[in-house]
Specification:
By secondary structure, the chain is α/β, with parallel strands linked by helices. It contains five helices and five strands. 48% of the residues lie in helices and 22% in strands.
Length: 119
């Protein structure tokens, strides 16, 4: 079981991810709808894993990732994106994202990414 934070600007996506995580026996410790909120909630909760959307208001996912890594260089962040922009995805991986998932993704692929990240 992992303590997970979800950062995505779409309420429906957060609800979907929350339901998936709860069914998989993970604990959702925080949810954020924009970049600054994600940084603050990470600081307050220090989750085991962050599911982080790349495109969010006020501060993009790459900037959030960099702020999280400043607070905890061992933070485990899985990037979620609808964009197939490999340059940006590579920047995120270089900045410390464990992996990325292209939306829409299969439930079992996300479950496998979480399991792999926890190892």
């Amino acid at each position: 079981m992992a303590r997970v934070m979800i950062a995505d600007d779409y309420t429906e996506t957060r609800m979907f991810l929350r339901d998936l995580l709860v069914i998989s026996n993970h604990e959702v410790v925080a949810e954020a709808a924009d970049g600054p909120e994600a940084v603050e909630k990470f600081k307050a909760t220090r989750p085991d894993i962050v599911l982080l959307d790349l495109a969010m208001p006020k501060m993009d996912g790459l900037s959030v990732l960099r702020e999280i890594k400043k607070m905890d260089e061992n933070a485990k962040v899985i990037l979620l994106t609808a964009s197939g922009n490999l340059k940006t995805i590579n920047e995120c991986v270089q900045a410390g994202a464990v992996t990325y998932m292209l939306k829409p993704f299969k439930i079992e692929d996300l479950s496998n990414a979480i399991k792999s990240t926890l190892k």
